[in-house]
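Hi U.,

Before I forget, here's the chain from the pilot set. I'm dumping it here mostly so it's searchable later in email.
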Amino acid sequence: MDIDVILEKLKKIHSNPVCELEYDNPFHLLIAVILSAQCTDKRVNKITPDLFAKWQTPEQYAKLTAEELIPYIKSCGYYNSKSKSIIEAAKSIVEDFGGEVPKTVEELMTLRGVGKKTANVVYAVAFGGDAIAVDTHVRRVSNRLGLSDSQDVLKIEKDLNMLFPQAEWSTLHHLLIHHGRYVCSARNPKCNECLLNTECKHFNDGKK
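Structure:
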């Protein structure tokens, strides 16, 4: 497996991979990432303009009840747990970090309702850190390419971190998401037209 070739081809396929969630500050990105669990970025982007227009700051969200928040986020699914995570994370930001979203993965993970994937996204996207957040797209593409044989997101993140240079981690995160979203989809992946089919374990195993 030639990691340099895989990275080069991913960059050729996806020339400008960026986070597709719309946000205007780290706190709003944190909310958007929480909402994006088991939901499309497109759906999240439809509801966040009204949400962010209604309440802007961690202090405001920390004072909300779930009943107040849920009508604004209900269409994203899992609204009971997501409303609790948003409110509790806001409380943690206010009480423990002076109202400012913390800037390290370790500190982000102390926020109630924030796990490793969410922390990695905020750290990489909002603060320019080096991190790979493993979502369903990253897991699927990593497995199919043979970059990891695990289903565990932390193990997949570790495998990718070991294979690729740290300076490429955040870019790789977006490349794999875009590839999973637009080329290597869960159903009917575009294998025959994918530039990576020569390197792809899934494609080549299917040919044998």
